[in-house]
Amino acid sequence: MVTTGKKIVLLFIIFLIPATLFPQTGKILSKIYKSGELRVGTSGSQPPFSMKSKDGQLIGYEIELAALLTDAMNLKLKFVEKPFAELLPALKNGEVDVIMSGLSITPERNTNFTFAGPYIVSGKSILAKSKRLESLDEQYEINSTKISIAALKGSTSQSFVKRYAPDVKLVLTADYETAVQMILNDKVDIFVADYPICVLSILRHPDAGLATLEVPLTIEPIGLALKPEAFQLHNLLDNYLDALYISGVLENLEEEWFLDGSWLIRMP
Hints:
Blueprint lengths: L3 H13 L10 H9 L1 E6 L8 E2 L5 E2 L1 H12 L3 E6 L5 H6 L5 E2 L7 H4 L3 E9 L1 E6 H10 L8 E5 L3 H9 L4 E5 L2 H9 L5 E5 H10 L5 E2 L8 E7 L4 H16 L2 H11 L9
Helix pairs in contact: 1-10
């Protein structure tokens, strides 16, 4: 068992290791240290991973985690906001160094990118109005042309719907908030998304009669996406993520953003 005192000492030692002493032979890592900043791609619209507060500031689980990592690496943090579907192309084109945006680690994505982590595990769920779910259950099977389902464009939720309900009317959205509003306004029947998003939506709209599943439909590891050739950067990030896990910091972050809803008052 690692005591609190030992955790603090461990973090102190690891975070004081000069990051510039790590291998500089990798062109990507060398370029990052030459610039002095790490460019992190995020949608900024996937609560509780990332979102905008009332005053327009980026907040969320991954926002705090990115700040911890760049502090440890002695780098400045620069967020590059893009629609979710544009993040992986931005990484491929060199517009960002890494992606932290609730990105699931899948075999398909691993054919073109590598992933550091995972730093949290999520899973697919559904969000809908309780009465609408009851009505649909009585009238149709889930894979029906009479049912409309919203999903985030370019996400594993989109792939999930296409695989398990290919006959439904699939409506793709650029962000989660648009899909939630479509549920609230009865524009679609069901919203398929990561389990935390569904739970959060119920907390944010307590009087809307929303419902989700008690247990996620899938298990999906979430990590940082990098270019395949970013070997040294990948290794460096994995080392710091391991330190944050061992020290209990990742667990504290998860409790803060996924279990404790006190941050909801900062939302618009």
